[in-house]
């Protein structure tokens, strides 16, 4: 039975400031607290004794730093995989997180699809994540994929066959920094074993 772990990257300065980040933030690094979060996440995953773990990270620096700490804890290497990067928020970059506290109907492209003005549509994000995750799964082992908040919501909608609008409106797939989701494949579908788990962060400053 295939297993897949999805992890949001550790905290960054932009996360501390509660500000949306665009593609220009790709070189940004995690904070001191983020480093502690990443180490704690790595130790928690190592405690699971995963069979043949394979760690993947997006092309963004903050995801690679987080995945590096996890890979170190698991005693394996790290693979950077294109397609796992954050959803491009376009004109919304620089806005506070509070700006996202609106229904999916308020976040639309001109064609009516879900997406940020000047950025990607939900369909575009789901499509590239589908290819990236299929690539990771095809390599075998137990994939541990480190990605980003909005991208993970889109990935789970793709894997669990849920409309992105519905998931956005109730935020069912929202992930805190280094939150871990575990999925198991069964009969051509995926089921959630744990969702956005942050137990490993207890006691982390």
From TrEMBL:
Binding site for substrate: 8-15, 62
Molecular function GO terms recorded: phosphatase activity
A cellular component term, taken from the record's GO annotations: cytoplasm
Pfam families named in the record: His_Phos_1
Signal peptide: none
Protein name, as recorded: Phosphoglyceromutase 2, co-factor independent
């Amino acid at each position: 039975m295939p297993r897949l772990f999805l992890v949001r990257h550790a905290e960054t300065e932009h996360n501390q400031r509660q500000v949306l980040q665009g593609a220009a933030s790709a070189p940004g690094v995690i904070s001191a607290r983020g480093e502690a979060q990443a180490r704690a996440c790595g130790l928690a995953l190592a405690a699971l004794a995963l069979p043949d773990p394979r760690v993947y990270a997006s092309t963004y620096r903050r995801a690679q730093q987080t995945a590096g700490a996890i890979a170190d804890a698991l005693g394996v290497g790290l693979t950077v995989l294109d397609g796992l990067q954050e959803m491009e928020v376009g004109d919304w970059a620089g806005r506070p997180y509070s700006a996202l506290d609106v229904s999916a109907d308020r976040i639309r492209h001109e064609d009516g699809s879900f997406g940020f003005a000047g950025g990607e549509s939900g369909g575009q994000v789901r499509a590239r994540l589908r290819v990236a995750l299929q690539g990771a799964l095809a390599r075998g082992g137990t994939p541990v994929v480190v990605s980003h908040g909005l991208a993970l919501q889109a990935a789970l909608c793709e894997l669990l066959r849920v409309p992105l609008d519905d998931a956005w409106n109730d935020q069912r797939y929202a992930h805190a920094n280094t939150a871990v989701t575990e999925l198991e494949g069964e009969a051509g579908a995926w089921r959630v074993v744990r969702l956005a788990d942050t137990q490993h962060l207890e006691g982390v400053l």
